[in-house]
């Protein structure tokens, strides 16, 4: 009887152990699948596809998500991409001649017909995936209007690409307010508003950079809204 009891107990423990092992593997599989789906739908995993076009120098990239809510936008060169962080990022890739944005696709045209797409595609894939996981807008809300001339467009491009990122690192921001008679009008926001060195930053930093790239700029002037004036008086 003791032998049978020990045998039954041994079998029971084996069954219990096997059940726990099965449950452990099942739970591990479920958790792994859940993590994969979370990354997939949270935007951390992207599957960018390509599609040929009638032009061998142009290739269509499909990120699997909306690019533009409506319409299309064409950027023939980097100077025209001041309003689109996505286009600016793509123009940083060597060999990219133009960028065309559609509802759910991005068409890249290469500058050299002899350059093979396998050289450019990895950088384009990386740029598209990095951009869509960054949370940046495809087109800035404060975009230049069609009436903006080339000088104003260059000023806004420099502000968005070179000046604002640096100022934002310090907890502030710079907003374009106008350009008249050689004077660029800017509004300082955030930590820059009450910073004692804001005027120095405005003149020595921003003004010098704008004058270097845009000869038409004679000076930079800080403008304040009514709310800023009232806050300064309190």
UniProtKB/TrEMBL annotation:
Single Gene Ontology MF annotation: iron ion binding
Keywords: Iron, Iron-sulfur, Membrane, Metal-binding, Mitochondrion, Transit peptide, Transmembrane, Transmembrane helix
Pfam families named in the record: Nfu_N (PF08712), NifU (PF01106)
GO cellular component terms attached to this protein's record: mitochondrion
Record domain Scaffold protein Nfu/NifU N-terminal: where: 48-135
InterPro entries the UniProt entry points to: FSCA_dom_sf, Nfu/NifU_N, Nfu/NifU_N_sf, NFU1-like, NIF_FeS_clus_asmbl_NifU_C
GO BP of this protein: iron-sulfur cluster assembly
UniProt key word Metal-binding: yes
Gene3D superfamilies: Fe-S cluster assembly (FSCA) (3.30.300.130), Scaffold protein Nfu/NifU, N-terminal domain (3.30.1370.70)
Segments crossing the lipid bilayer: 22-41
Localization, UniProt: Mitochondrion
Family according to the record: Belongs to the NifU family.
Physiological role: Iron-sulfur cluster scaffold protein which can assemble [4Fe-4S] clusters and deliver them to target proteins.
Subunit structure of this chain's protein: Monomer and homohexamer; the apo-NFU1 is a monomer, while the holo-NFU1 is a hexamer composed of a trimer of dimer that is probably linked by some 4Fe-4S cluster. Interacts with HIRA and EPM2A/laforin. Interacts with BOLA3. Interacts with HSPA9.
Protein name per UniProt: NFU1 iron-sulfur cluster scaffold homolog, mitochondrial
Organism from which the protein derives: Oryzias melastigma
């Amino acid at each position: 009887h003791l032998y049978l009891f020990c045998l039954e107990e041994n079998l029971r423990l084996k069954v219990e152990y096997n059940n726990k092992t099965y449950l452990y593997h099942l739970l591990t599989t479920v958790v792994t699948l859940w993590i994969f789906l979370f990354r997939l739908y949270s935007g951390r995993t992207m599957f960018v596809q390509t599609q040929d076009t009638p032009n061998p120098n142009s290739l269509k990239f499909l990120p699997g998500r909306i690019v533009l809510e409506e319409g299309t936008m064409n950027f023939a060169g980097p100077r025209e991409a001041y309003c689109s962080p996505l286009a600016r990022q793509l123009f940083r890739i060597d060999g990219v001649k133009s960028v065309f944005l559609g509802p759910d696709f991005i068409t890249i045209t290469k500058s050299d017909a002899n350059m093979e797409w396998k050289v450019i595609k990895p950088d384009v894939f990386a740029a598209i995936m990095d951009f869509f996981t960054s949370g940046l807008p495809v087109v800035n809300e404060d975009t230049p209007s069609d009436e903006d001339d080339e000088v104003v467009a260059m000023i806004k491009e420099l502000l968005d690409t070179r000046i604002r990122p640096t100022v934002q690192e310090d907890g502030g921001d710079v907003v374009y307010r106008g350009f008249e008679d050689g004077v660029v009008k800017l509004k300082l926001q955030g930590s820059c508003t009450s910073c004692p060195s804001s005027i120095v930053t405005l003149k020595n930093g921003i003004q010098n950079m704008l004058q270097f790239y845009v000869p038409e700029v004679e000076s930079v002037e800080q403008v304040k809204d009514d709310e800023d004036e009232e806050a300064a008086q309190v």
